[in-house]
Structures are given as C-alpha cells and as structure tokens.
Task: structure prediction
Amino acid sequence: MSRILMRSAMSQLENPSAIDVVMNNLIGDNTGNMIFANSVMRTLMLEDTIIDTMATNHRFSKEEIANINENYDYFIIPLANAFRKSFQKELRHLTHLISGLQIPCIVIGVGVQTTVTDDLKHSFDFDEDVKNFMTAVLEKSSMVGVRGPITGAYLKNLGFVEEKDYTVIGCPSMYMFGDSLPEMKQTELTPDSFVSLNRKIELKPDLHHFLMKCTKQLPNYTFVPQGIDDLRLLYLGKPISRERFPKIPESYPEKLDHDMLVQNKAIGFVNVPTWLDFLRSVDFSFGSRIHGNIVSVLAGTPCYIFVSDARIKELAEYHNIPHMLAKDIKADTNIFDLYEKADYSLIQKGHKERFDHYIKFLELNKLPHIYQNHDQRVVFDEKMNQLTVPKPILPFSAIPLEEQMERLMTYHEYVDEKHEEIKRLNKQYSNLSKRYDSLVNESEIQLAKRLMKKGLKRFQF
Result:
C-alpha cells in the first residue's frame, strides 16, 4: 500500500460544497489548479493507494514534518508557474518542508513566470529561491518535471542540467486520459455557434478589446472565469476588489450589475466533471487561459489560445494547441479565420510520445501508476462516479429568488460557524496566554533568585 501526500488545496474526492470552495479558496486562487491535480491523482491512485492533500502556504513546524515522515511514503508536488516573485514566500516554505522530509519528494510539473520577450539570461529576484528549491528536491528525487522548454532554459541558466536534473513533461493535465485524447468535434463556426470565452483581469487592454470584439461576432457566448474573486462575485455578489485589481476594464464583470452577469452569460466551476460536461456542450472555446482551454481539449472541443506570457506559450507549443501571441493580434485579425485555419489534428500528433515520456519520468522517480498494468482499474474514476458533485455557479443576479435565498442562508450559516470557531480559538489562546505568562513569571523569579545569590544586585524584572 502506498500512502501519498500531495500538494493541493483540495481533493475532488472530498467533494467540497460550492460555499466551501468559494469561501475557503480551495482552488488556490485559480480553478485551473484543479485540472492538473486531478490528473496526477487519477494517474497515481491504485486500488491500495491512499492520497491525501494539503496546502503549503505556511512554514511547517518540526512536529508537522515529523508527522508527514511517519505517515506517508511520498510527497507529490504538482505546481504551475511557481518560479515567480509572488510565489517566493511559499517556495521557501516548500524548500524548508522538503529539506526536513525523509521521503521521496517529486515535482510533477513546474514553470517560470516571465514575458514572451524576456531574456532568460538576466537574473530574476527569485533565482536564489529557485536554486534552493531545486537543490532540496533533487536530494529527494531523481529528476524534476518542468512544463516546457522555456522553464528548461531558465533552469539551465541557473546551472541545472537537462535530462539529469530536469526534463520537460508539459502539463500533467494533458495526460488525464492517458495516451489518447478525444477526437475534436470540429464543425463550421458561425455567429450562432455556442462558444466559451475565458480570460482574466490582468491582461493588456488590447487583448481585452480583441476578446470582446470576438463576442460581438459570436454573441452566443458564455464567459468562464477561473479566479477566486470571480467565483465570489458569481456566488455571492461580492464585488471584485479594486485594491487587489486597480485596473479592471469596463468590459470585465466587476459587480453584479454588469451586463454579462445580468444576462446570465457567465458560469463558474468548483469541480472538474461539470467543467468537462459544459465544454463538451459548446462548439468552440477561446481566450487567454491555458487550463480553461486544456479542459476544452480534454472535452474534445476545438479551442484557441491567445498567449499573453511565456508560461502559456511553452505549454501551447509543447502540446500543439492552436494559439497565437497576443502581441501579434492586428486590427484585421478575425476569430472565424483563426478557427478555420487552425489544424486541430496537431494536438493528437506526438501526444502518445509525450505521454510515454511523462510515464518514464514517473517511473524514473519510482512512482507506481495505473498504466503499469493495462488492465488496471481506474480507481479514481470509480470513486468520482459515486459522488454527486456541486452544480456550476451561475451569476447571483441571474438565478431565481429561491436559489438566491438558499445561497444567502448557506453563507450566513457558514459565517456563524466561523464566528463560533473564532470564539473557541480566542478562548484557547487566552488560556494558553495565561499559562504562558504564569510560566514566564515563575521562570523570571527563579532566575532572579539565582542571580541575586551571585551578588548581581542590578537585575531588573
């Protein structure tokens, strides 16, 4: 029996409710994180495998590290664009944790955050943290799996060696269904086609403008946001924070009164099955989100990515997903032309070879997986099929009054529970504080007595 601890904000097998996901940020800020975590878990879950998940956004104590060493055989670390400035603190927490662990620690996918024009030979603020992280991981594993050649070039510049310290594996989410992908159901794209749009707030104005121009050409669209702030807006009507996002374009839903929400043209997901089902129902998916479009690939629906940074570029190129650089969009760029000219068969081309390389990477790190035996049951799927997962999140302003009341009651019940929990924690803290003060006072008194015996008259409490 293998006991695996995996870095992830949640396990889909725990089937958290929408309110739990939204209020506790169980997506780690981005629903895209669910996709590669699901894929890794599906691949590693044998009949006698136990997989638990945990977040790594804090510094681990000696007791926590000892507990992991005692109870688990592997620590699995699927990451996204973890080599970036805003992730430095957590990367240090991970390095500290890995350094203290005595079990294999395997990184299954990690990428660098940079622009498509950055010269990777110049230094970044996070270089030393990445070196320390890589060094710690390589002491506990055979090799690190990186998302693409851009990340590989970055690590090479730091002194790490390809096919010795790291290898390019792409994104694990693309191997959700093994060595094959669903055939694309490509049909004629018309103004009446049902399409899915994905984007995020932090895009350049020109890209926002182009994507909204596309919605004028394809008015039967649904926006699929992925950020935690977007989900909170959809679920409860909480406006997106201008403090966190100072530049929100007018075309982006910021409050409940936005036309896109009032007209019920947005939908959010808190689990993978409903996301896949939705994208199976559309004719085309397009936008700036890498995982929003990877889900489309997994659903067998054509997609097109407008690449805004290097992390998306290296994955789109590695997996042959149709794309173009956002900076190359011109005034006459037409979404219909892009759809017609895209060769969706290329996604299939080389997929089996990429999958085989991924499996060799897992085996190099001595990880048991379901593809070792072709007759192996897919235990993860069996367990997921037993669950009734939460429905997608429709905009609060567009749902019936009864559903609004249900959401509000659920929210207030959640808040009441949290208030009670805070009261209990405050009481525990107060009791511990009193005990601590008592111990400190006793210690000071004993120390004072000893010092006074030695003739140190000046000691002050």
In short: The domain at 195-347 is CATH 3.40.50 (Rossmann fold). DSSP finds 16 helices and eleven strands in the chain. The chain has a mean pLDDT of 93. The first helix runs from residue 18 to 24.
